[in-house]
Amino acid sequence: MIPDLEILSPGSVNEVVELLSKNKPGTKLLAGGTDIIPGFQIDSNRFLDIDCLIDLARVNEMKSISESDDEITIGAACSFDDISSNKIIIDNFPLLSEAANAIGSPQIRNRATNAGNFINNAPCADSVPPLLVYDALIEKISIEGKQRTSLEETLLVPYQTTVKPNEIVTKIIIPKKIKNYYGTFYKLGRRRGVAISRITLAILLLVEDDKIKDMKIASGAVTPIGMRLRELEESCIGKSPGKELFMEVSKNLGKKILDVTGLRWSSHYKVKVVQQMLYQLLEKLYMEFKEPEIEK
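^ that's the sequence the OP posted. Answer follows.
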């Protein structure tokens, strides 16, 4: 049941910051509401202490996507529909666009916001792996001022981040990639549509002179939160891409998942599936890199 609540409707970020500075217990920001409202309806323990919502619907300065010479800024209140259909995002960060388009239903994508997805920090937050491989930053504002920090450092454990009660995330900032990376996003759910993820992977691969110059891998759902797999990435740098290396990395991914999650009832199939998918995705990316050379 949705409880009786005080609803505040500020019209600017400055107004939101002022309201948050009062440190009133039980106050929560409301963006898309696709986690909070269903949470109220099922009496989720995570939302029992909320008695005041600050509705961000009128804060239009948080709903734009802009581009500069070296970075792209996404307003924290942009919906997934905004992101999946935006040409700037499609051209520069196709994995994020693809992940945004795979979330929920059209109704959910019209409401849910990118920032809400990672601040909620559920294991199945589909936008997190692409944001992690793109080295996304976030901008937080409080009465004390502005702060930029990496998304990776912001995520702590399931449903917890470093964002303080008196802070609001206003922007996601993603540096532009100068190099020609090949990338892919993979999602596995119980069904094709309106599905909570069971496994997600985002990968960027840069090959120069038939050596791996850079690799970025992030997982979701199969790990407690979305996370960069930096040990696996570093183990590939400088090596020749191919079946032997991809098989080794895929096996090591399975070991890493078990190290992080421990042995669970779903491990017997999840680990095998994620290993196979990483192998296939790396092969696919390498073939995409090789195709122009073959045509020559």
